[in-house]
Amino acid sequence: MKIKKLIINTKSQKYPILIGANLISKLPKLILDNSIKFEKCLFVIDKNVPKNKISKINKSFKIKKKNFYFIKVNEKNKNQKTVNSILEILLKKNFSRQDCLITIGGGITGDIGGFAASIFKRGLKFINVPTTLLSQVDSSVGGKTGVNTTFGKNLIGSFYQPRLVVTDISFLKTLPKRELICGYGEILKHSLISNKKNFNFLIKNISNILNLESPFIENAIYESCKVKKTVVENDEKEKDIRKILNFGHTFAHAFEASLNYSKKLNHGEAVLLGINAALKFSYKNKFLKQKEYDTVIKHIKVSKLPFEIKNYFALKDCNKILSFMIKDKKNKTDKINLILLRKIGSPLTNKEFTKNYIKTFLQKELIN
Fold first, then answer.
1. How far apart are CA 254 and CA 309, in angstroms?
2. CATH number for the domain including 71?
3. pTM for the whole thing?
4. Catalytic residue of the set 53, 243, 253, 280
5. How far apart are CA 284 and CA 234, in angstroms?
6. Residue range 122-150, pLDDT digits in tens
7. Preceding omega of 215 cis (within 30 degrees of 0)
8. Are residues 229 and 120 in the same domain?
9. Residue 238 is among the residues annotated as catalytic for this protein
10. Is 178 a catalytic residue?
11. Which of the residues 153, 228, 243, 280 is marked catalytic?
């Protein structure tokens, strides 16, 4: 199938996203085709990337000055210590701002590598090769980089756009079903905040998408990235409209942090729980009509996606969840800022609620 191309054009950087199969073996050519030149290269690679893929990359790059750094990827290792390890290599090998850092892995790998690239000598060239469905439709678009702290998720970071994103769908065949469902959570979110046409496409084709059938998987990735492209180009630094991309995420990030980023709940599953919570909160507060609410919830249930927060939390966890929601980046007062939904394709921003109001909502969710 022909490579799909999407151009992201922000104030700070214009770059292409290339979507197709078996692109990793063509990576050096794709880099040259996009006029990206460098003498030294550091590959920051997720340890879960198959060795045969790494071997292809190593053989295809003919430059002598290439280095490799492998990350044991999890939310707990997404921290400043890992970033410092990358910076140390760049410093020891005397990289210049004209050299390049290439990340190959999921969203955590891209976030860590992108953040290191953004702060090394105030910025060196950065190329991202996302290998999970979640990263291909989410973190690879828009330039958000960062690390976690004990205070919460992604509270230290920067906006730093890559020079090129190469989305190779052949990586997806190496992933377990659980990881594909995680990516689907972001695809679903993008459809809910964009338009009903995208949502109806998912209703008809979810099995084709999760089974990685062509051209459905490519189209799903492309359309999802297109939604994020439109938002990011209008608001690169998340001062206004970009906040809609956080639909479900205020809840989701708090869920993850409350479980100390354990394997029991990964990011994509947390997003699905967060989407469900935001939908129900929208409905209970009469922003979202019952017909629209029922349509989305039916899709989530029929698709057997994670949606019940009581399967992961108990009443005793409410205060912990709220403590992390209070620290969310969108908050400007002592109230909690939520992104909600008026109808499919029509999100609501800057809706603030007291801690006790949300606590009552969570308690009802965990009891019923």
1. 12
2. 3.40.50.1970
3. 0.91
4. 253
5. 31
6. 999 999 999 999 999 998 898 999 999 98
7. yes
8. no
9. yes
10. no
11. 228
